[in-house]
Amino acid sequence: MSSPYFIGIDIGGTKMAVSIFDVTTSSVERVERFPSGADCDPAEMVERMVAVARGWIDAKGTAPEAVGVSVGAVYDWASGCVTDAPHLPNWKGFPVVATFKEAFGVPVFAENDANACALAEWRYGAGRGCDHVIFLTFGTGLGAGLILNGRLYRGASGLAGEVGAMRVADSGPAVRDKPGCLEGFASGAGIAQLAAAARAHNQETTLPENPTAKDVFSAAGEGDAVALAVVEESTVKLGQGLATLLDVLSPDRIVLGSIFVRAESMIRPLLEETLRHEAMAETNAACQIVPAELGESIGNFGAATLAELGLAGEL
To answer: What is the mean pLDDT of each run of 10 residues along the chain (315 residues)?
Structure first.
């Protein structure tokens, strides 16, 4: 007889995935990924993922305990629907929970991807053993999930954790239609805009005409002065934003995703210096800043964690 398992669905702006999570071993057993994009059709993508999952279910001979869905969009917990989807416009209004419940006939639990990833890192990754964890995606955008007193915190609107919307400057890259917001400085999209503006005013740089965040950190690693200045500006603003989180919420761990995972050695010294200046000594001393651990599997673990905690009544 097969071990109990969950089906995980990861709905993202560039890829989607369906996975099996083995409950006994707490591991992702199988994954199949599909490219997505702004023009992808929800019905078609769901049909493909459900078909793969049904094949696995038939092979196992038993139904999954539950299904977890990580949604890369603004998601309404109460209705189970996508309410806004900047990167997946065709998914706006899509009934996530109802659709997958009809397809699988088992309990379905869903959350936005930042919350799902926060739960995954808290349960299985860099936030293990902590009661108060803040996870920041720090990738193309800057989403966040808050684990407070051992529970996911959604707030009155269900949108708690929109750390990227905090204003940290009077002006800056026009991310979120809010120049000066933290996401404009501490995200891949924001760093790219900072670098493009810096390059326009200084041609003595190895940065390409339309630099990406990856280009910036690569050039900074080789000593490019323009790229180094961009990394410095980004890091200081990130530190200012984290200092606010430290002083308001006093987490015991902040977990930083993609960019920090790849460029920790370049970011950490100035980040820690900024926190020493900007945060209260007590809240700073009580918190560890660590890179995310789950890597490319975080979406699969996130979906599985939603299924696990949902079944336990802990979401």
So the answer is: 90 92 95 91 95 96 97 92 90 96 97 95 97 95 95 93 93 89 95 94 88 96 96 98 98 96 97 98 98 94 97 94
Q: Among candidates 184, 98, 107, 135, which has minimal Cα distance to 301?
A: 135
In the CATH scheme, what is the code of domain 5-120+296-311? 3.30.420.40
Q: Which residues pair with 108 in a beta bridge?
A: 67
pLDDT of residue 1: 59
Q: Where are the domains of the chain?
A: 5-120+296-311, 128-293
CATH 3.30.365.10 fits domain 128-293: no
Per-residue b/e over 24-49, b at no fewer than 16 CB within 10 Å? eeeebbebbbeebeeebebeebbeeb
Give CA–CA dist 141/240, Å, rounded.
17
CA–CA separation, 105 and 102 (whole Å) = 6
Q: Which two tokens stand for residue 79?
A: 């209705």
3-state secondary structure of 88: coil
Helix, strand or coil, per DSSP, at residue 111: strand
- Whole-prediction pTM value? 0.93
The answer to whether 38 and 92 have CB atoms below 8 angstroms apart is no
Q: Are strands 253-256 and 151-152 parallel, antiparallel or unpaired?
A: unpaired
Confirm whether 5-120+296-311 and 128-293 share one CATH topology: yes
Nearest 5°: CA angle at 263, between 71 and 285? 85
Pairing of strands 15-22, 5-11: antiparallel
- The H-or-E segment that residue 14 falls in is none
Give me the residue label for tokens 């900024």.
274
298 within 8 A of 117, measured Cβ to Cβ? yes
pLDDT digits (tens, 9 = 90+) for 113-151: 999 999 999 999 999 999 999 999 998 889 999 999 999
